[in-house]
């Protein structure tokens, strides 16, 4: 026999009952998080409790257990917020990002650290590195690569002089919007946006605003802040920035590529233990001789280590000398990685481990 159909009131009672159980369990989890702090000792700050490898392990278990109807991305987001709130009970993490408020960098902060972390909007990517190095920020989040426009060179260049360590990565789908005071396309004579965003939307701009002046600014949110004071100006920015600065949306999803994604790096001051699914970023300078790059790369192949990415930049140590940024699968503490790096050392002019960190989650 089929079970009797529940009335709307009975369904709502079931939901209310489940909500009470969820709330009780979240409170219990928060109490156990306090117990972790007690076990570790008094007088520590949030950065002493934060362990990205443990967090990644917990969230992977969330994905493995998920049977719907919510997507993996939604389940990870919910659990990320729970963990963020539990960690921030005593002292929230301070995370620097390219500001002002409303940038995609801030969205990446919230995706990785949750809304309980304290965001520090800063004026440039260089300043994010500086604030982390000085200890004014526990971590920083900086853009490093876009799926359509490639590597963000200023971020790579900062690693040539900074001692920052990479502690994590975030992948963020980027949907660009055009915002203005009036919300009318015909009023627009100039468009503000970050140089990368202007490039990401160049086809749309050429077709829809062929005569508008495109003006590069430090961030999309800064462009939105400027556009709110100018009647004939518009800004390329995310939906959030448009709302924050009181602008009307002229057009949505104006990016040229539907899969427009930006990868961000989480930078800090320490290396963390393996999480079980990690990536290692290396900065390698080679000697100027035939086969130098082959000598550096071949140990990875011999020891079954997959190379995910390689990018070259001027090394800043002399004319025509280059440093290679290399991402490989695995953690620096893995045995095969140790052996490969030991073989690379004598073949390279300089080898630096920028970080070993969990692979980005959904």
Description:
- This protein is α/β, with parallel strands linked by helices.
- It is built from 13 helices and 15 strands.
- It has helices spanning 8-40, 46-49, 52-65, 72-87, 104-113, 125-134, 153-161, 195-200, 202-208, 220-227, 239-244, 292-302, 335-344; strands at 94-98, 118-122, 139-146, 150-151, 165-173, 177-180, 190-194, 213-217, 233-237, 248-251, 261-268, 278-286, 307-314, 322-329, 348-358.
- The strands form three sheets. Strands 1, 2, 3, 4, 5 and 11 form a six-stranded mixed β-sheet that branches.
- Strand 13 (307-314) and strand 14 form a beta hairpin.
- Helix 12 (292-302) packs antiparallel against helix 13.
- The longest helix has 33 residues, at 8-40.
- The radius of gyration is 23 Å and the shape is globular.
- The protein starts with 7 loop residues before the first helix and ends with a strand.
- The mean pLDDT is 92.
Question: What profile does the largest beta sheet have?
Answer: 6 strands, mixed
- Tell me the overall shape: globular
Query: Which bin fits the share of residues in helices?
Result: 25-40%
Residue windows where pLDDT falls under 50 for at least 5 positions: none
Number of strands: 15
Number of helices in the DSSP assignment = 13
β-sheet strand percentage: 25-35%
Rg estimate, integer Å:
23 Å
SS-derived structural category = alpha/beta
Could you give the order of the helices and strands?
Answer: HHHHEHEHEEHEEEHHEHEHEEEHEEHE
Determine the mean pLDDT.
92
Cα separation of the termini:
41 Å
């Amino acid at each position: 026999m089929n079970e009797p159909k529940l009335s709307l009131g009975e369904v709502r009672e079931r939901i209310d009952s489940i909500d009470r159980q969820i709330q009780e369990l979240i409170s219990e989890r928060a109490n156990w998080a306090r117990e972790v702090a007690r076990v570790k000792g008094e007088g520590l700050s949030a950065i002493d409790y934060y362990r990205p490898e443990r967090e990644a392990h917990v969230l992977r278990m969330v994905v493995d257990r998920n049977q719907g109807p919510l997507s993996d991305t939604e389940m990870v987001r919910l659990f990320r917020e729970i963990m963020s709130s539990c960690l921030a009970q005593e002292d929230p993490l301070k995370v620097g990002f390219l500001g002002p408020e409303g940038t995609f960098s801030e969205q990446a902060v919230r995706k990785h650290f949750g809304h309980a972390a304290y965001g520090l909007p800063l004026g440039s990517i260089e300043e994010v590195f500086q604030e982390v190095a000085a200890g004014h920020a526990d971590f920083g989040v900086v853009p490093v690569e876009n799926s359509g426009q490639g590597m963000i060179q200023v971020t790579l260049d900062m690693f040539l002089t900074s001692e920052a360590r990479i502690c994590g990565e975030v992948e963020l789908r980027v949907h660009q919007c055009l915002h203005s005071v009036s919300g009318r396309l015909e009023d627009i004579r100039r468009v503000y946006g970050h140089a990368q965003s202007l490039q990401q939307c160049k086809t749309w701009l050429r077709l829809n605003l062929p005569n508008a002046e495109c003006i590069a600014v430090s961030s999309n949110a800064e462009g939105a802040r400027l556009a709110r004071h100018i009647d004939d100006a518009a800004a390329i920015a995310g939906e959030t920035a448009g709302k924050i600065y009181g602008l009307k949306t002229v057009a949505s999803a104006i990016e040229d590529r539907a899969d427009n994604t930006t990868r961000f790096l989480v930078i800090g001051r320490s290396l963390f233990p393996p999480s079980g699914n990690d990536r290692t970023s290396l900065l390698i300078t080679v000697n100027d001789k035939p086969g130098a790059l082959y000598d550096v790369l071949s140990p990875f192949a011999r020891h079954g280590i997959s190379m995910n990415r390689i990018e070259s930049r001027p090394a800043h140590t002399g004319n025509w000398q280059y440093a290679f940024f290399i991402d490989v699968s695995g953690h620096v503490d893995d045995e095969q990685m140790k052996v490969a790096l030991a073989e690379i050392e004598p073949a390279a002019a300089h080898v630096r481990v920028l970080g070993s960190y969990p692979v980005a989650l959904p």
